[in-house]
């Protein structure tokens, strides 16, 4: 049996190959973190833009330059850490330690908000407590 690939097939395979290479190149330069079922820790020296976690939690010990969002997981901001954007948790808790700064909104759906009095939030604080 002979297997021949038409010109259209070869072009399609080539385009898929180039798309895969370019996606890998962009992924290496990206400062976003997304996980499914594995907790994310942002260290003091990490450069992170957006953090999204599905079925896991996020611990911030440094700085996130945009938003942190969790679905069925919590957000823990340790002493003097910072999120420039919003912190949003669906079905998890948000904990803001001593000296924490959130530039945008803090929103909790179906969880609890625990906030140290020395923490600061630049936007609105909304908490719809309870379990999902």
Percent in helix: 10-25%
Distance between the termini: 57 Å
Q: Sheet with the most strands?
A: 6 strands, parallel
Instruction: Please tally the helical runs, counting DSSP H or I stretches of 4 or more residues.
Output: 1
Mean pLDDT: 83
Q: Please state how the strands of the largest beta sheet are arranged side by side.
A: 1-3-6-9-12-15
Number of DSSP strand runs: 15
Topology:
Layout (H helix, E strand, L loop, with lengths): L6 H23 L3 E4 L3 E3 L8 E4 L3 E3 L2 E2 L3 E4 L3 E3 L4 E2 L3 E4 L3 E3 L4 E2 L3 E4 L3 E3 L4 E2 L3 E4 L4
Parallel strand pairs: 1-3, 2-4, 3-6, 4-7, 5-8, 6-9, 7-10, 8-11, 9-12, 10-13, 11-14, 12-15
Walk me through this protein's architecture:
The chain has one helix at 7-29, and strands at 33-36, 40-42, 51-54, 58-60, 63-64, 68-71, 75-77, 82-83, 87-90, 94-96, 101-102, 106-109, 113-115, 120-121, 125-128. With 132 residues, it is α/β, with parallel strands linked by helices. The protein has one domain (33-128). The strands form three sheets. It has a six-stranded parallel sheet, with no helix packed on it. It has a five-stranded parallel sheet with strand order 2-4-7-10-13, with no helix packed on it. It has a four-stranded parallel sheet with strand order 5-8-11-14, with no helix packed on it. It is globular. The chain starts with 6 loop residues before the first helix and ends with a strand. The relative contact order is 0.12.
């Amino acid at each position: 049996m002979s297997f021949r690939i038409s010109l259209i097939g070869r072009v399609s395979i080539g385009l898929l190959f180039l798309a895969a290479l370019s996606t890998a190149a962009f992924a290496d330069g990206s400062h976003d973190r997304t996980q499914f079922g594995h907790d994310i820790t942002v260290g003091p020296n990490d450069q992170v833009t957006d953090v999204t976690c599905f079925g896991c939690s996020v611990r911030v010990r440094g700085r996130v330059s945009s938003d942190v969002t969790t679905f069925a997981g919590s957000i823990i901001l340790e002493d003097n850490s910072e999120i420039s954007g919003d912190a949003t948790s669906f079905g998890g808790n948000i904990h803001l330690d001593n000296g924490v700064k959130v530039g945008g909104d803090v929103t909790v759906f179906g969880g609890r908000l625990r906030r140290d009095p020395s923490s600061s939030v630049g936007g609105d604080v909304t908490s719809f407590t309870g379990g999902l």
